[in-house]
Write a structure and sequence with these properties.
- This protein starts with a helix and ends with a helix.
- It has two domains: 196 residues, Arp2/3 complex 21 kDa subunit ARPC3 (Orthogonal Bundle), CATH 1.10.1760; 160 residues, Reverse transcriptase/Diguanylate cyclase domain (Alpha-Beta Plaits), CATH 3.30.70.
- Strand 8, helix 12 and strand 9 form a beta-alpha-beta unit.
- The longest helix is centred in the middle third of the chain and has 43 residues.
- A five-stranded mixed sheet has the order 4-5-3-8-9, with helices on both faces. Strands 1-2 form a two-stranded antiparallel ribbon.
- The chain is α+β, with helices and mostly antiparallel strands.
- Helix content is 64%, strand content 11%.
- Helix 2 packs antiparallel against helix 3, helix 2 runs parallel beside helix 4 and helix 3 runs antiparallel to helix 4.
Length: 368
């Protein structure tokens, strides 16, 4: 009996892992067609149930004990209301027809189908989670115990066998549930670590590390032109000194939001490179388009005051320097330097303006 239950648990654990990990958004690969995932999880649960039945522990000639009810409950966590219904139908139908149509198989199989249906109906109203899954498990376990007691002539031996079944079900369910919850925590921590490594904690934009990664990829994998915009908030130190750093942080977050909106239709890739310095990469944007979008961004910042949590309306302006690949450089470091030169030219010649690196070179030639 104990060997059979151990085999059942190993099969259950394998099902749980295969039904959870590949369908998580944080997994390294993703199964396509998300709308079909609940049906696929239900199918996996049904097939697992068939395997569990083949390795089931026979209590009597009429009654088999395995972890199939745990599979049906867990499928509700992974696949929502559809999965327990599908797995319940497969497992219950197999119990009726594959093992031989008898009164015992009909009662046991029908009970399995009803259990899957009830779980499906209730999860439509309240989604099953790791926290509340135990209540669905309790219901299904009680129903199954009642069916077992009905099918078996009561004796102390039968009572002991039912007790073994209850203990096995509890141990299997809560052990797997604990492992899956730990796995979820692990996924969450990994996802958070990856996000922190790639994004700026204050604005949610790409950080400088991710900026370097994206720009290097673009310069290596395409010959199409793109423009690099570097921008800086004019007199931002005054904001921090006058209103405090919390208000300065609000300005930075609002600026990030405006940069996203203003460059979205141009597929702009926005990063915070440090302090009050931001960048926008505009794929497939030659000089003219780059200057046009830069002006749209400058106007989006200048035209509407920044509202703060303490009721202030702050007038914020930015200066923008622009360079274009490959005319102004075929490596990201050179492009960045060119945009930086153009940015400081904009700040030194009045601020709240857009300057392309070509304009600074033209000015330098005219001054010679």
């Amino acid at each position: 009996m104990f060997l059979g239950m151990a085999i059942n648990f190993c099969i259950l654990f394998t099902f749980s892992f295969l039904s959870y990990w590949p369908f998580q958004n944080r997994a390294r690969f993703h199964i396509p067609f998300p709308a079909l995932h609940p049906y696929l999880i239900g199918l996996i649960g049904g097939v697992t149930g068939l395997i569990l039945m083949e390795t089931a522990v026979s209590i009597t000639d009429k009654v088999m004990v395995d972890a199939r009810l745990v599979v049906i409950v867990l499928s509700g966590i992974f696949g929502g209301p559809i999965a327990p219904l599908v797995s319940g139908l497969i497992i219950g139908g197999a119990r009726i027809f594959i093992t031989g149509v008898t009164s015992s198989s009909i009662i046991a199989g029908t009970g399995t189908i009803i259990g899957g249906l009830v779980i499906s109906v209730f999860t439509m109203k309240k989604r099953m989670t790791f926290r509340n899954a135990r209540f669905y498990f309790y219901y299904f376990l009680i129903q199954t115990v009642i069916i077992l007691a009905y099918l078996m002539d009561f004796s102390w031996t039968v009572a002991a066998q039912i007790f073994y079944f209850i203990a096995f079900s509890f141990l299997s369910f809560f052990t797997v549930l604990f492992i899956l919850r730990e796995l979820k925590i692990h996924f969450t921590k990994v996802s958070l670590a990856e996000k922190l490594a790639e994004t700026d904690f204050l604005t949610g934009l790409y950080n400088n590390r991710m900026f370097q990664k994206v720009t290097e990829s673009i310069t290596k994998n395409t010959d199409a032109p793109f423009s690099l915009l570097l921008l800086d908030i004019d007199h931002f130190k005054r904001v921090n000194d006058t209103y405090g750093h919390p208000i300065g942080d609000e300005v930075l977050r609002e600026l990030a939001s405006r940069l996203r909106r203003a460059s979205h239709s141009y597929e702009g890739i926005v990063s915070r490179n440090g302090g009050e310095e931001f960048s926008v990469i505009l794929p497939n944007a030659a000089k003219e388009t780059g200057m046009e979008v830069a002006e749209i961004i400058r106007s989006a910042v200048d035209s509407v005051p920044f509202k703060t949590s303490n009721g202030l309306d702050l007038s914020i302006t930015i200066s923008i320097g622009v360079s274009t690949f490959p005319d102004n450089g075929d490596e990201i470091q050179k492009l960045f330097n060119q945009s930086d030169i153009a940015l400081y030219h904009a700040k030194n010649t009045g601020r709240n303006k857009v300057v392309h690196i070509d304009e600074t070179e033209k000015t330098a030639r005219e001054s010679v």
